[in-house]
Amino acid sequence: MDQNNQNRCYKHCALFFAVLLLAAASQLVVTGAVAGSPEDPEVTDAAGDADPAISGLSEMCDIISAWVDLEDAVVLRVAIRLSATPDMVSDQIIGSKWNFCFTYNEMKCIATYDTSATEGNTYGLKVNGSSKPAFGSVDDENATVYIAFLKGNETGLNMASGANLTEIYAEVAGDKVTDRAPDSGYGRNYTLMTYEPDITLQSLAPDKEVKPGNEVRFSVVALNNGNVGANVSLSSNLSLDGWSALLADEAFYVEGNGTFKGTVLTVGVPADASIGDVCTITVFCDYSASTLNLTATLNLTATVKTVEPPTISGDASSRKVDAGGTVEFMVYVTNNDEDDWTFPLCATVDQDGWQYVFDPETIEVEGGDWGESRMTVTAPETASGTARVTVSACGSSKVFEVIVRGTSGDSSGSGGGALPGFETSVLLAALAAASMIAVSKKKKLS
Questions:
Q1: Residue 273: beta bridge partners?
Q2: C-alpha distance across the termini of the chain, in Å
Q3: Who contacts 34 (Cβ-Cβ below 8 Å, separation ≥6)?
């Protein structure tokens, strides 16, 4: 595997583990109220207060607590805990009813476990006196009666997310023994859960640096803290022209209850981006909740990295040209950075009417190496004197002089130039040659 492919592999692995780490650090928060429990019930009552205290019967009618035990998008289940499990065979309790009572939207509701002799042991729901279907069970081990019913139009309740159950209490209404919990007043209100998605966008590293002409990758994680799943659609917007953004996945489904799904956003930087430029990338996540269309956003920033400026040189520092003619320079750019760079070349001329062309306009140079481009300069027909062409690349510049023949600037000579590092080689060669001549002369004199 070559170095570039190996680096790409490392980057993708890093992004994968970043997504996993972000998910592990996220808190799984469920939207809406959390139902009560035996440890935290909506209703509590003192033990042993069933009336009258009949041995073997009052315990089965003695309410300890009551609570909303379970809720989903369709069903609500309530629970009544007793001192002892009702004995369905005992003739003593025939005719008793265990009721969980509440008010919803000004409707008086009673969820009932009925042991009447004529109908047998049944579960039911009354809404403003009208009978509705219900179902349930008895937990003998924990002496708890469970009653469940539908929340929708089937019972006429049409319970809405976020609404409250109020005036909650439990009672045992029987021929022999009765009890009410609490003894007076009501228990704690219950807020119906909100069944909709709640999407947030996160990134483990939302701020990164990048070089001109390169790409930078961001992890983007859609986290659903709601209690239902949602289809999401991702898009992005960039604050600077010439930049690009590409999402690996633009649409997907995210389950609820803290489930997440991650993708990768690749941002491309133009080759002529300036050092210090900051591009803000806004990622949008569109999804639906109930009848609302919602959008989550995430802001990422990519800053053009400050690196070691290159060195610009040429095969000549000045050349002569006729008015209206052209002249060429070889421009050399030495990459002083350890990483590979793409250098866009540009120039300015201190006189009007002059034109220049680079071939190529950008130079790809490996770290520590150098590249070249041919610069052709065209003088206008009215040119005179000396024009100064300033060539720039990524924070560095060099001035090349173009002297128009037969004008006031023509007295200066043409300057020479060489490839990067060539000047040193020539100097060393000259010193070596001089040394050899000196040795030769010394031998002749001896």
A1: none
A2: 63
A3: 193
Q: Is 277 among the domain residues?
A: yes
List the structure tokens of 350: 């201190």
Q: Is 261:254 a contact under the CB 8 Å cutoff?
A: yes
What is the token pair recorded at 276?
């210090």
- 49 in the same domain as 181: yes
Cα separation of 223 and 122, whole Å? 44
Same-domain pairing of 175 and 69: yes
pLDDT of 305 > 80? The answer is: yes
Picking from 191, 224, 239, the residue at the C-terminal end of a domain is: 191
pLDDT (tens digit, 9 = 90+) per residue, 65-85?
999 999 888 999 999 999 888
Residues 16 and 94 in one domain: no
Tokens of 339: 């990483």
The per-residue pLDDT for 384 is 92
Maximum pairwise Cα distance, the chain = 143
Which residues are CB-contacts of 191 (< 8 A; sequence separation ≥ 6)? Answer: 32, 33, 162, 163, 164, 165
Among 297, 256, 296, smallest CA distance to 29 is for 256
**373, 393: one domain:** yes
Residues 148 and 55 in one domain: yes
* Domain total in the chain: 3
Contact 174, 61 (CB under 8 A): yes
338 and 267 belong to one structural domain: no
Note down the domain range covering 180. 43-191
Q: For the segment 390-404, what is each residue's pLDDT rounded down to a tens digit? A: 999 988 999 999 999
Binned at pLDDT 50, 70 and 90, residue 35 comes out as low
Shared-domain flag, residues 68 and 176: yes
The burial class, CB within 10 Å (0-12 / 13-18 / 19+), for 174 is buried
The mean predicted confidence, pLDDT, of the chain is 83
Burial of residue 109 (CB within 10 Å: 0-12, 13-18, 19+) is buried
State the Cα–Cα distance between residues 364 and 25, nearest whole angstrom: 41
pTM, 2 dp: 0.49
Asked if pLDDT for residue 121 goes beyond 80, the answer is: no
| 67 and 180 assigned to the same domain | yes
Task: Give the single-character DSSP code of 42.
Answer: S
**Burial zone of 1 (CB within 10 Å; 0-12 exposed, 13-18 middle, 19+ buried):** exposed
Which CATH number covers residue 336? 2.60.40.2310
Cα distance between residue 129 and residue 110, in whole Å: 9
**pLDDT value, residue 339:** 81
